[in-house]
Design a protein that fits this description.
- With 470 residues, the chain is α+β, with helices and mostly antiparallel strands.
- The chain has eleven helices and eleven strands.
- Strand 3 and strand 4 form a beta hairpin.
- The chain starts with a helix and ends with a helix.
């Protein structure tokens, strides 16, 4: 019993005694009802001040005092009539019930106060956590609050990294390897395990219901802190990748630009040697052309990513660009394998596109098909309409593209694992798609029936007659 409770017992027992003596002295001038009301007030006051035990004790003592001093026959505990006994029982029942209700109300009020204090602390901690400069600082604050609130030796917050739980925040004594009681609480976010909250203490750790609620709430904040750390790490990684990509673009643009002049000189010297019959000079000239195309691809890729490559779409005939592609490959050893399919019996097809860059797109697609298709099979180039788009198709009987690689083949510098190493840089398809997108179109891949690949270039179609009428 606390000192306050002991003082309440002394005070209200003394008040009970004084009231009994006072009413006994004026017993002839008061009724039994007066005594009942006076004792009931004392029982209520004692219940409020000293709790349920004092209230019930006063109720029992008051019942005996009423029977002895204020109910006939006086100064005896006997009951003359049954109704008098009912009066005493009714008083006792009323006093005890009132005491119970007061105790219950007081308990609920105390619980409400504790909950309010708990919510206030959690709200304060939540604001402190969210306003912390870094996730590590927030987790450190959480660990300190848990250690102080539960009075444990050590509080650790661990983060799950590659299957291992690494300590990211701690409070209290250094973590112990053995001879210590531990309590571990998993930390999860969006149903994903993020880490764990670990308590360490020399003696067994006992957690009651309010403390369990406190730990659950703090665990939620700790999980938010771990998520914040993860997001910060991912953001830093993304920033590093963007910076690396930007530096790569700058380097490629600079190197590609600086290579143009020496390549022009090398090609000129190689041409001069080839005219004199030097076979090595002819090889050098061929490789210089190849390197020049690579440099041009790199420069154009850099311009497209920087938004400085400007296209000029205008009205053009689809048959004209197909004819230009055929002439481009006519002088090569593989030019005979390129088969064009243009239905001259149908009206000419027109589109709104940049002729030079569309020629380059189809040239890349045809060159890619000729490189991978068997030497005894043709590469077919044709054009049709698909809704409001022109659909240029390049079909071959090569090995095709595995399903997981379909989208990756359009990434810069990507080469499929099974692709033949012919010295290519893996830029052709990437540039083709980007040039198509700059004109409001696209480049798509589909497997060909019977084996092989079909690359389709989609560009906006146009009807010149409809435009003239409009």
């Amino acid at each position: 019993m606390t000192a306050a409770r002991a003082r309440a017992w002394v005070l209200w027992l003394l008040l009970f005694a004084l009231a009994t003596v006072a009413m006994r002295l004026v017993r002839s001038n008061i009724d039994q009802a007066h005594a009942v009301l006076a004792y009931l007030l004392i029982v209520l006051g004692g219940s409020v001040a000293g709790g349920r035990p004092l209230g019930i004790s006063l109720a029992g003592m008051a019942t005996l005092a009423i029977n002895y001093f204020f109910q006939a026959p006086l100064d005896t505990l006997s009951v003359a009539k049954p109704p008098d006994g009912l009066v005493l029982l009714a008083f006792l029942a009323t006093a005890v019930t009132t005491t119970q209700l007061l105790a219950l109300a007081r308990s609920e009020a105390e619980e409400a106060r504790r909950r309010a204090d708990e919510v206030t602390r959690l709200a304060y901690l939540g604001s402190e956590t969210l306003n912390a400069g870094t996730a590590e600082a927030a987790l450190g604050a959480i660990a300190r609050v848990i250690r102080d609130e539960l009075r444990v030796d050590t509080c650790l917050i661990r983060r799950l990294v590659d299957g291992r739980k690494e300590v990211v925040a701690s409070a209290g004594a250094a973590p112990r390897a053995r001879d210590v009681s531990r309590l571990e609480i998993p930390l999860t976010g969006h149903d994903v395990e993020l880490g764990a909250l670990e308590l360490q203490h020399p003696t067994p750790i006992a957690v009651d219901e309010p403390q369990r609620r406190f730990l659950d709430a703090l665990g939620y904040y700790a999980a938010l802190g771990l998520e914040r750390m993860q997001l910060a790490a991912e953001a830093a990684h993304a920033d590093a990748l963007r910076e690396a990509d930007r530096m790569k673009d700058i380097l490629l643009a600079s190197v590609s630009h600086d290579l143009r002049t020496p390549l022009t000189t090398i090609k000129a010297m190689a041409q001069d040697g080839a005219l004199r019959g030097d076979e090595n000079s002819a090889i050098i000239e061929e490789q210089a052309d190849r390197l020049s195309r690579l440099v041009s691809d790199l420069l154009d890729l850099s311009r497209m990513k920087g938004g400085t490559l400007h296209l000029s779409p205008e009205l053009n005939a689809a048959e004209d660009v197909i004819g230009a592609v055929a002439r481009q490959f006519a002088g090569t050893t593989s030019g005979a394998r390129l088969v064009t399919a243009v239905d001259l019996s149908q009206p000419a097809l027109f589109g709104y596109f940049d002729f030079v860059h569309t020629l380059r797109i189809l040239g890349n697609l045809v060159e890619n098909a000729l490189r991978y298709a068997p030497a005894d099979t043709p590469v077919e180039l044709g054009v049709t309409t698909a809704g409001e788009m022109l659909a240029f198709t390049v079909a071959d009987r090569g090995p095709g593209v595995p399903a997981p690689e379909v989208e990756r083949i359009f990434e810069p510098f990507h080469r499929s694992p099974g692709a033949r190493n012919d010295g290519g840089a893996g830029l052709g398809l990437s540039i083709a798609r980007r040039l198509a997108e700059e004109q409001g179109g696209d480049v798509r891949y589909a497997p060909r029936a019977g084996g092989g690949s079909v690359f389709t270039l989609l560009l906006p179609a146009c009807d010149p007659q409809a435009e003239e009428i409009a």
